[in-house]
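Our consortium's second objective concerns turning raw sequence data into structural hypotheses that experimental partners can test. To show how far this objective has progressed, the report includes one record in full. It was chosen at random from the queue rather than selected for favorable results. The single chain below, 191 residues long, was entered without modification.
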Amino acid sequence: MSRRKNKGGRILLGLLIFILVIGGVGIWYISPSKSLNLQYQSIDIKDKIMKMLEARQPEMILSNDEVAQMSKKKLIEYMNTHKIGVDITGADFEFNGQTVTADMNGKWGVIPFGATLQFDMTTNGSALVLEHQSTRIRSLDVPTSVFKLEPIEVSLREHLPNIVTVKKVDFLDEGMKLTFKIDWFSIPSLF
């Protein structure tokens, strides 16, 4: 009879070890593959605006990095106003036309994870709107019913002087081209 108790204890111990190993492998699998942070640089496009005004051509190109910095800043503001169920600890945005790929690191409770989010980018007046389309952790797709972000709006207006209004946005492979409506009579107020 003591052999039965001993055999049952071994089976239970083996099952517990198996569960711990599977859990460890799962945590390793979803853990971030690269180090990311939420630090961003404020962009100053005043020089670009001044060159645009001097050339009297109401258009300018924003690089992928400039748009990424604006997006990272807006992501931080978004997380402060929305409950998303996880803590985002790092992000890196890549733009290719209207498709945005965001590599993100975060924590679900105490469990770290790395994910890739796909967004479609559209415009709404002088705002860029990032619509969350999908989430992937390594090779696993996360259903949108489990994790879906509300649209994130990146205001171009807060980076521009009052005399210019965004008229049109063209998405390029390496950034975006902004075409403006300019109040030419207000230009002397800049100097």
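The partners drew two points from this record. Strands lie at 59-62, 87-96, 99-108, 111-124, 127-137, 140-142, 152-155, 164-172, 175-182. The first strand starts at residue 59 and ends at 62. Both points have been shared with the crystallography group to help prioritize constructs.
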